[in-house]
Write a structure and sequence with these properties.
Length: 59
C-alpha cells in the first residue's frame, strides 16, 4: 500500500531464531528477491533484518 501513495515504508519482522546467525534458516520470511545464502525467495530475519524495506518482503 505505501507504493500506491509513493511513500517509503519499513517493516520490522519478528521470528523465532534458533541459531541467531543465519545458518539454520529457521527465521526466514518470504521475499521478492532471491536470497544469496539459500538461493530461494527468502530473507533471514536474524541476518538480513529484522527491519526490511516494505518493497522487499511479501506479507
Amino acid at each position: 500500500m505505501p507504493k500506491k501513495w509513493g511513500i517509503e515504508a519499513q517493516i520490522s519482522m519478528e521470528e523465532r531464531m534458533a541459531c541467531g546467525i543465519g545458518a539454520c534458516l529457521a527465521c526466514v520470511c518470504k521475499s521478492k528477491d532471491v536470497d544469496s545464502h539459500s538461493h530461494v525467495h527468502n530473507k533471514r530475519v536474524c541476518k538480513d533484518g529484522p527491519v526490511f524495506d516494505a518493497r522487499e518482503v511479501e506479507l
